[in-house]
Design brief:
Elements (H helix, E strand, L loop, with lengths): L1 E8 L7 H11 L3 E5 L10 H5 L5 E5 L7 E5 L3 E3 L13 E6 L4 E6 L13 H19 L5 E6 L12 H4 L7 H14 L1 E3 H5 L8 E2 L6 H4 L2 E2 L2 E6 L6 E6 L15 E6 L1
Parallel strand pairs: 1-2, 7-8
Antiparallel strand pairs: 1-14, 2-4, 3-4, 5-6, 6-7, 8-12, 9-12, 10-11, 13-14
């Protein structure tokens, strides 16, 4: 059976419930993971998504900030959350499908504007968050698992519009890339998007600051779908829905999709 998973930083699930509904109607993933929901769980418009067949929802939320949710057409079991770096933020939630596949949904801290933890506490929190993720996966080696989310790092040179110009910009600095690689290695995670699309520029985020984001095309691949090595070979069909970035009142992120024959 094919399982299609999507991840999308929605930048307010209540403000953009209509866009979520449109994506669910037009693309019909089995599972949609949302980040930056910016809503307490009881304020998420779950009835809208239930009406579209997504009656299984596992979420963690807080007022105005962060927040992660997993919407599914298939039954889900809440598998808890981790408070990495002790931030007290709603940045992780996990759920298990009936076939035993565990889905992790992450929203890694953005890290502020200055890539120096001595000058910018937010950057230090980001590095600490990734370190805690690494250590957790070292101690709890995942199996039959899929990890998705806005990881707020574009690791490869072709994951950004200009490797040289972004080397000192938060999201593409060498220290962040190294921390993400260590986290990936600790869990034996395979980058499914790049397994399917191994070469070429690939972006999932374009800044609101650009007057014409499409023409400027100064993007970064901040949103990821990973899988553990035992199921990575079942992954296929990866794509980023760039056009969604151009919908009315869009998020600055585009949804990322992958399918698994499991």
């Amino acid at each position: 059976m094919t399982l299609t998973v999507a991840t999308w930083n929605i930048n307010s699930v209540r403000l953009r419930a209509g866009l979520v509904s449109r994506l669910l109607r037009e693309e019909a993933p089995d599972v949609l993971c949302l980040q930056e929901c910016k809503s307490p769980v009881d304020k998420i418009p779950t009835e809208v998504f239930e009406g579209l067949g997504y009656g299984h929802i596992v979420a963690r939320g807080q007022k105005g900030y962060n927040g992660v949710a997993i919407l599914s057409r298939r039954p889900l079991e809440d598998a808890g959350e981790m408070d990495f770096a002790g931030l007290g933020h709603a940045r992780h939630v996990a759920a298990r499908l009936e076939n035993g596949v565990l889905i992790h949904n992450f929203y890694v801290p953005a890290g502020g504007d200055v890539p120096d933890r001595d000058k910018n506490d937010k950057f230090g929190q980001k590095l600490d968050y990734l370190t805690d993720m690494r250590d957790w996966f070292h101690g709890n080696r995942p199996e039959k698992a899929i990890l998705v989310g806005d990881l707020n790092i574009a690791p490869r040179e072709d994951d950004v519009w200009s490797h040289k110009q972004l080397l000192k910009i938060v999201s593409h600095t060498p220290v962040e890339v190294d921390h993400l690689a260590a986290t990936q290695d600790a869990g034996g995670w395979v980058d499914i998007t790049r397994q399917d699309i191994p070469e070429g520029l690939l972006y999932s985020w374009w800044s609101y600051r650009a007057r014409d984001w499409d023409a400027a095309d100064k993007g970064r691949r901040l949103d990821h779908i990973w899988a553990t090595g035992d199921i990575a070979a079942a992954g296929h069909g990866s794509r980023i829905l760039r056009d969604v970035r151009g919908w009315d009142q869009p998020s600055d992120h585009a949804p990322v999709f992958a399918s698994f024959d499991l």
